[in-house]
Design brief:
- The protein is of the alpha/beta class.
- The protein has a single domain, classed as Rossmann fold (3-Layer(aba) Sandwich).
- The chain is built from seven helices and five strands, in the order E-H-E-H-H-E-H-E-H-E-H-H.
- The longest helix is centred in the C-terminal third of the chain and has 25 residues.
- The two termini are 22 Å apart.
- Bound molecules: flavin mononucleotide.
- Flavin mononucleotide binds next to loops.
């Protein structure tokens, strides 16, 4: 499967990149073709026009690159920190630039925080947004508490419980990826 991992923090001292690398490693090990959309790397402008509102070939180059990744993806993993109990602005800004690229594809939420609650409050907000964007999220959420200590800089789990916990989450996501892909082949309502 082609999977886009979307991670949204532009902070200099950001920690969630470790969780993004962890899930990229795990999905790659299972043979998936994984691309990271990192809000810091792609530096999308604060939303003016959505990608679809540009004339063909006129969108900023970075938007075009993100569009291509999203369009090819069979599903999305949203790696999100929790800022004041909700979605980091950089992540929401990136999600909002695109629309039909997401349609009829599943998403999976990986939330995290510095404290003990693993970003569960942002996960609840994200569910509503992801459904509205046309990429409903799978039932299981993967919350990571104390993200700064959970993985090393390469995304290797320090707490080995994450290596076993991730298996069921990925298997569930794969089921939805396959089901949605098969049904997309039969056509979509729009
Ligand atoms: C603006 C801001 C708001 C935050 N709000 C919360 C919060 O509501 N709940 C929480 O558990 N942690 C909160 N934190 C702490 C984050 O969980 C922690 O800094 C985490 O590493 C942020 O993700 P990042 O490093 O990928 O940017 C907040 C951090 C920032 C910068």
């Amino acid at each position: 499967m082609n999977i886009a991992v979307i991670y949204g923090s532009n902070r200099a001292d950001r920690q969630g990149i470790k969780a993004a690398r962890f899930i990229i490693n795990k999905l790659s090990e299972r043979g998936h073709n994984v691309k990271l959309i990192d809000t810091k790397e792609y530096k999308l402008p604060f939303l003016d026009k959505m990608y679809k509102e540009y004339e063909a070939g006129k969108a900023p180059e970075m938007m075009g690159k993100v569009h291509e990744i999203l369009k090819k993806a069979d599903g999305f993993v949203i790696v999100s920190g929790e800022y004041n109990h909700s979605i980091p602005a950089a992540l929401k800004n990136t999600l909002d630039h695109f629309q039909s690229e997401y349609y009829f594809k599943p998403s999976a939420i990986l939330s995290y925080s510095a404290g003990p609650f693993g970003g569960l409050r942002v996960a609840v907000h994200l569910r509503a947004v992801l459904s509205e964007l046309g990429m409903p999220s799978i039932p299981t959420i993967f919350p990571v508490s104390a993200v700064q200590d959970a993985f090393d800089d390469e995304g290797i789990a320090v707490d080995k419980n994450y290596d076993s916990r991730i298996v069921r989450y990925i298997e569930e996501f794969e089921w939805y990826l396959t089901a949605f892909k098969n049904q997309r082949k039969e056509g979509t309502p729009y």
